[in-house]
Each structure stands twice: as structure tokens, then as C-alpha cells.
Amino acid sequence: MAIYAECPHCHQRQHLKHGRCKKCDFDLQAAKRKNQAAYWVYVKFRGKQVWERIGSSLTTAREREVGVRAEVVKEEYQPPRKKGAQLEDFFGDYFLPWAKREKKSHDKDELRFTLHLKPFFGNVPLKDIIPRQIEAYKEHRLAGGAKNATVNRELALLKTIINKAAKWGMFFSQNPVSLAGMLPENNEHVARFLSEEEVERLFGELPGETRPIFEFALATGIRIGNILSLTWEQIDKKGRVIHLPRTKSGKALRLPL
Fold it and tell me: For 3-53, what is each residue's pLDDT tens digit?
């Protein structure tokens, strides 16, 4: 019987004595101090391994370990029933912390989940989400006036959540979103450039201090977000090239000036 700490980065469980994660080398000591690590009580009961997830309180985990020892001695111990990872719990405890570290769009993920996915699916076990429910979600959102593209972004998030659960050993079936598929989207749009007259009208409406930003955007085609975060280190004046280390697609970009 022992208490194990769960790495908040890769979710590997390991003995408390480890200062760094043995799988990803994450600083476990710092995570424990900041209450970012979850604790598990492990016991081998009647030949089987039993894990109880306690939460981020080491004190509570130690108290539970003492209680489990007493229950085992008195033959009163009842292993917790396995319910499977719950959607809401998995999102809050595992997916969102990962998204905040790895994704610039984590705030959009949290908003989509809170406003749309959570109210429809509730805190159901991930294993109970099936393709028929995905189809019902599509109908529900479309009936409420949402566009196909909007629903697809929400389903893409749910698909990613379930894929992460599978990668982290908490989901063991085919992804129901993949099985149900996405809604068709109308991508027939024609890209065009502003005419000189439209450019002059645009600049006539802009406050003076913002005009250089839009002039730069029109000249380069760079997104406003990338322009606002641009630093001199990213600009090669001699080579007349802009280096963008990360764009919306997640890829680096070299843009000639």
C-alpha cells in the first residue's frame, strides 16, 4: 500500500519520493507545492491492484491511506466501483490543464465546452458517448440556429478530448465523433483583394494610430495577432524576411518583405 503522485503534464503515476517525473522529467516537486499534482492511494486487494484517486491534497491522501489500512485489517474494505472517466471531470482535471500549456486557443476550448458540450452531454462517462448521441447533438445545435461550421468546431473539440483520453489510458474504444463524422461545410468562397478605393475608405475610418498596423497587414498578408506580437528579432532587415515562429496553423513561416 502506498501513495502515488500523478504528473500533471503526462499523467504518469509514480511514488512520492520522485522529485521529477520519471516519464517526461516534469518538476513534480514544484507541482506538489502548487497543488497541481493529484494523489492516488494504491492497495493490492485480494490479488488485484486497486487505485483510488484522491485529488490535490496530500493530507487527504495520507488520511485515506490510513483509513484503507484499517479497513483491510478489519476486512471491511470495499474497492471503489469503476465508473470510467467522466466527461466534465476529465475536461477539468486533465484536458484543460494540458490545453492551457499547449494551445493558444485554450480559452475558446473552455468556452465551447462550457456553453455547448457540457450542457448537452452532462457529466456522463466518456465510454457512454456513442455515435447516436453525436448525431443528436448535431440536430440539437442546428435547431438552435448554429451553422454547420460552428457545430463542427465543437465536435472537433470533443473529438480531441476523447483522443486525449485514449492516449492517456482512460478511453478504450473507437472515437464516436470519428464514427459519426462531421457536417458538410460550404467552402466555396473566392478570395479577393481590396481595391484602391476600398483601401482609401478603410483608412479614412481608422484612428490615426492604428493605420500603420493595417498598412502592414495589407502589404504582407500577416494576421493582426502576429503583427501585434512581432518583435525586432523576427525581422531580418538585411535579408528582407520576416520570421514567424508560430502561426495559427502551428507552423513556422518565412515571409519576404
Answer: 999 888 888 888 888 999 988 888 999 988 888 888 999 998 888 888 888
Task: Note the Cα 93 to chain centre separation in Å.
Answer: 11
Give the C-alpha separation, 95 to 156, whole Å.
14
Answer left, alpha or beta for residue 178, where phi above 0 means left and psi between -120 and 50 means alpha.
alpha
Give the other-Cβ count within 10 Å of 141's Cβ: 20
Rounded distance, CA 253 to CA 42, Å? 48
Cα gap 122→174, rounded to integer Å: 20
**pLDDT computed for residue 118 by the predictor:** 92
Neighbours of 248 (CB within 10 A): 11
Grid cell in block for residue 214: 493595417
**More confident of the two residues 187 and 10:** 10
Which pLDDT score is estimated for 187? 61
Find all residues with CB under 8 Å of 121, minimum gap 6, and list them.
Answer: 87, 129, 133, 137
DSSP 164-231: HHHHTTS--S--HHHHH-PPP-----------HHHHHHHHHHS-GGGHHHHHHHHHH---HHHHHT--
Distance between CA atoms of residues 78 and 55, nearest Å: 19
Task: Please state, in angstroms and as integers, the Cα–Cα distance from residue 73 to each residue in 129, 138, 245, following that order.
Answer: 39, 52, 59
Q: Which three cell numbers stand for residue 172?
A: 478504450
Q: How far apart are CA 111 and CA 103, in angstroms?
A: 14
Contact (CB, 8 A) for 88 and 122: yes
CA dihedral sign, ordered 214, 215, 221, 227: negative
Question: Quick one: cell of 43?
Answer: 492497495
